[in-house]
Specification:
The complex is a heterodimer of chains A (387) and B (249). Helices cover 51% and strands 14% of the residues of chain A. Chain A is an alpha+beta fold and 387 residues long. Chain A has 3 domains: 113 residues, Acyl-CoA dehydrogenase/oxidase, N-terminal domain (Butyryl-Coa Dehydrogenase, subunit A, domain 1); 111 residues, Butyryl-CoA Dehydrogenase, subunit A, domain 2; 150 residues, Butyryl-CoA Dehydrogenase, subunit A, domain 3, CATH 1.20.140. Chain A is globular, with a radius of gyration of 21 Å. The mean pLDDT of chain A is 93. Chain B is of the alpha/beta class and 249 residues long. In chain B, the strands form 2 sheets. Chain B has a 9-stranded mixed β-sheet, sandwiched between helices. In chain B, strands 2-3 form a two-stranded antiparallel ribbon. The longest helix of chain B has 15 residues. The N and C termini of chain B lie far apart (64 Å). The mean pLDDT of chain B is 94. Classes of the chains: A alpha+beta (387), B alpha/beta (249).
């Protein structure tokens, strides 16, 4: 069944406001964001007021009810500005809300979703020092304790952990690995629960405005109603289910940022003169501009197709992997060309090309590296061939 | 107190206007349109007056094609309470606009009408002043500050010599300048709510106004392309060049 999403008129009016907001407020605040290492409080408050945290949530929980095509269109726009802005909304929307909507009990949805829709920050705790998608190696344990559980373990590379209000923590409720990852459960853990501490934020290559840190759980007691869905063993499924959307979100972020970079590259090429004329007049510069434009268009079309399929209810495992792989690699190529168009200036901190180049490198890594996407695509091809 | 806020749908201020090949006007096909920025400031000022408890209701009005509904919806999403679209596909000149607003002001009895000082398409800067003349109400144009005190409003105006403050008896007409305020963005929840706010559709004939143009546009053309500059070697060279083109004798 097709998901029509929210009313197209309202969506278009919102995107128009968002485009202005991105250009008039978010982009001018980027330097401050870099300096602070987080989204400035006044901007975060505005983002909440703008309703950016609830875009995909059903109206009954205080959201706008966007479908996937609309959500991805939204991400493309917000990702024209620093990736830190997308990061702070997409973890809420794409990972934690999606897990809650898909697997939460009605009581959990009613308690958490309106909070998240109005901008309480959530973090998603799957990865550990020695495990990521490999759930058999997961060390964080949740042990039954009366009506609740006691959690112990360390989660690593957790985006937004330093300013999260809540963390969705995956922990094993069974010491032995079970089929279908049934040893993993998910817990809704308030950030201020006794025993939860956050490590020192990791230094990173780029995206200074977004923070990642360890989440350390030491004898953290949670009540039984913190168990996602009120059921053990569904944690890994909940985590994996958010991945298709996560891949589309990173693909959309890649497209949005590539557009920003190419706009900057074109502007520089039109303004910078060599041999008495703008360097945009030189064919080798034009080749870089044209290749970037064409590749952005290709990624945009892939995204539109993958989203339309998802909204029609089709499974898009391969399409999401292919789109994420192509779009993030494309974004890397555009970043490289934009630095090249800038010449020596592209290597200097004074120009944005240098920041763009560092900021977008992660797009080829998180939500599954390019190599993981290649595996997903090829494995499906082989499976289909074998029947 | 009720506030009437006229808003116009114009070519978006970020769009580079292109003249139609036949020179009859600016090409508006498939280009982004949005609310006239001065009108947006008017809507914002009205909302601030409502938030301060000075105003009780904000009515946004637009004269234009069916698509001007979108502009009114933006005003509603920002915080106007209801809207009136006076629908016409004709180009409406400032005098006809002022007559329509006069008729609406008669019907609605607002305490203030806040207009943009001009629309960025025609740059006429006439409608507010004409409306003041037709209604006989006081006017404070090019406002950079608006304060309602009892049955008066004091308007700080941006004039050539600096700032001038005038005190007007209500009801009054105010036209906005750029520095009056920074308009808010319409939030997603408010855009959703705006959908169910009332929007009436009328025609100029409903107000007995004839919108037939009084001005004939002879020709619209692109501004002349600026020719490239030249570098001069020194002051003597500059003086010689100025003499050559007759600027300096």
């Amino acid at each position: 069944m097709t998901n029509p999403g929210m009313d197209a008129d309202i969506y278009d009016a919102f995107i128009e406001q968002l485009q202005r907001y991105v250009r008039e407020r978010l982009i001018p605040a980027e330097d401050q964001l870099e300096e602070l290492g987080r989204v400035p409080d006044d901007i975060l408050a505005e983002m909440r007021d703008m309703g950016l945290f609830g875009v995909t949530m059903p109206e009954q929980y205080g959201g706008a009810g966007m479908n996937i095509s609309q959500y991805v269109g939204f991400i493309r726009e917000i990702a024209y500005a620093s990736p830190a802005y997308r990061s702070i909304v997409s973890i809420n929307i794409g990972m934690v809300c999606k897990s809650l909507l898909g697997f939460g009990t009605e009581q959990q949805k009613e308690y958490w979703l309106p909070k998240l829709a109005t901008g309480s920050i959530a973090a998603f705790g799957l990865t550990e020092p020695d495990s990521g998608s490999d759930s058999a190696a997961m060390k964080t344990r949740a042990v039954r304790d009366g009506n609740g559980y006691v959690l112990n373990g360390t989660k690593r590379y957790i985006t937004n952990a330093p300013f999260a209000d809540m963390i969705l923590v995956m922990a094993r409720t069974n010491a032995e690995p079970l089929p279908k990852n049934a040893h993993v459960s998910a817990f809704l853990v308030p950030r201020d629960a006794p025993g939860v501490s956050i490590g020192k934020p990791d230094g990173k290559m780029g995206q200074a405005g977004s923070q990642i840190a360890d989440v350390i759980l030491e004898d953290v007691h949670v009540d039984g109603d913190a168990l996602l869905g009120g059921e053990e063993g569904i944690g890994f499924r909940a985590a994996m289910q958010s991945l298709d959307n996560g891949r589309l979100s990173v693909a959309a972020a890649s497209v949005g940022y590539a557009k920003r970079m190419l706009d900057a590259g074109l502007k520089y090429a039109m303004e910078r003169k060599a041999f008495g004329e703008p360097i945009a007049n030189f064919q080798l510069i034009q080749a870089m501009l044209a290749d970037s434009k064409a590749e952005i268009y290709a990624a945009d079309c892939m995204l539109n197709d993958a989203c339309a399929r998802a909204d029609r209810g089709e499974k898009i495992l391969v399409e999401a992997a292919a789109t994420k792989m192509f779009a993030s690699e494309m974004c890397g190529r555009v970043a490289d060309r934009v630095v090249q168009i800038h010449g020596g200036a592209g290597y200097l901190k004074e120009y944005l090309a240098e920041r763009f180049y560092r900021d977008c490198r992660i797009y080829r890594i998180y939500e599954g590296t390019t190599q993981i996407q290649q595996l997903v695509i090829a494995k499906n091809m082989i499976r289909d061939y074998a029947g | 107190m009720k506030i009437l806020v006229p808003v116009k749908r114009v070519l978006d201020y970020n769009v580079k206007p292109r003249v139609k090949a036949d020179g009859t006007g600016v090409d508006l096909a498939n280009v982004k349109m949005s609310m006239n920025p001065f009108d947006e400031i008017g809507v914002e000022e009205a909302i601030r007056l409502k938030e301060k408890g000075v105003a009780t209701e904000i009515v946004a009005v637009s004269v234009g094609p069916a698509k001007a509904q979108e502009t009114l919806r933006t005003a509603l999403a920002m915080g106007a309470d209801r809207a009136i679209l006076v629908q016409t596909d004709d180009e409406v000149e400032p005098l006809a606009l002022a007559k329509i607003f006069k008729a609406i002001a008669d019907a609605e009895a607002p305490g203030l009408v806040i207009l943009g000082k001009q629309a960025i398409d025609g740059d006429n800067n006439q409608t507010g002043q004409m409306l003041a003349a037709l209604t006989g109400w006081a006017q404070g144009t090019f406002a950079s500050a608006v304060n309602v005190e009892g049955d008066h409003v004091s308007v700080t105006r941006e004039v050539d010599g600096g700032l001038e403050t005038v005190k007007l008896k209500l009801p009054a007409i105010v036209t906005t300048d750029l520095r009056l305020n920074e308009p808010r963005y319409a939030s997603l929840p408010n855009i959703m709510k705006a959908k169910s706010k009332p929007l009436d559709t009328k025609t100029p004939a409903d107000y007995g106004v004839d919108t037939a143009p009084r001005v004939k546009t002879v020709k619209v053309s692109e501004p002349p392309v600026r020719s490239a500059g030249v570098k001069v070697a020194d002051v003597d060279d500059l003086v010689a060049k100025l003499k050559a083109i007759g600027v300096h004798s």
